[in-house]
Amino acid sequence: MSPGLWGPIAVAAGLALVAVLILAPDRAHLPRSRRRPSTAAEDTVLAGAAATATSLVARAMRRREGRLSVALDLAGVRMRPQDFVFLVLVAALVLAAMGLLVGGFWLMLLFAALTPLFASLWLRIRTSSRRKKFGDQLDDTLQLLAGNLRAGHSLMQALAGVAREADDPTASELGRIVNETRVGRPLGLALEEASVRMENQDFHWVSQAIAINRQVGGNLADVLEGVGKTIRERNEIRRHVRALSADGRLSGIILVSLPIVVAGFLGLTNPGYIGLLFRHPIGIVAVVIAVILLLIGSFWMSRVVRIKF
């Protein structure tokens, strides 16, 4: 190994250690003030350096902090935007050092450039998964809500009870609705905004049904049970369509994963052959073009097998 590589590797390892120690959640069950009431908590040098770094990141991203905060909220990531950006920067430096060690300068640039893209993709995947889970839980949520209403609870009490009993993300979304309503926000508006956040047409129907019922009166439990029955029928049709389109999805997964598997196999069996792509500028350009075309193809195939109704 070249002696000149030890410097970037040491810097990347140090930044990774800072990220792990500072950004990791505190797992202590009792706060430090209760365990040592006579001892004042003092920040370590490492914590101070990390806090300074995250504050600098926060100043640099003031204009885009709102968008990133919304993206983290939708993905269910309980982290400040500056902490997330700092963690992505540390990951980019670590992967860049690994790329420099394995494939040279061009691979270092490739890893550094792809790290923010993969971080954004990870947020989108988490958001999509969270929204899908919310839709899958909606049938059980309506049954719990109707049961609480039949037990004599008010609508707000029923929402708060379901928020305590349900799993995430339903619990967090209903809890947010209850908290917003308690501070003066109209219930109909809070429900509608939740349906927009989750991009769930079924919950939009639920919010409309609750709003109409609050205006004209009637048995809200029966209304919610009727809406729940409609949602169950739609889910059955959706599952049937998904089963019919499983062949196309499987074909897309195979076509997308095949180049990655072949490249990994060649990297293990014949590193010199595949390593030429990462050491020569033309090879780096070919790899970048291949990755871009692979992403475009995977996006196109996902849209072909996605049926909306």
TrEMBL record:
Keywords: Cell membrane, Membrane, Transmembrane, Transmembrane helix. This is Type II secretion system F domain protein. Residues 142-266 form the Type II secretion system protein GspF domain. The keyword Thylakoid does not apply. The chain crosses the membrane at residues 6-25, 84-101, 107-125, 248-268, 280-301. GO terms for cellular component: plasma membrane. Gene3D superfamilies: Type II secretion system (T2SS), domain F. Pfam families: T2SSF (PF00482). It is found in: Cell membrane. It comes from Isoptericola variabilis (strain 225). The keyword Transmembrane helix applies. It is a multi-pass membrane protein.
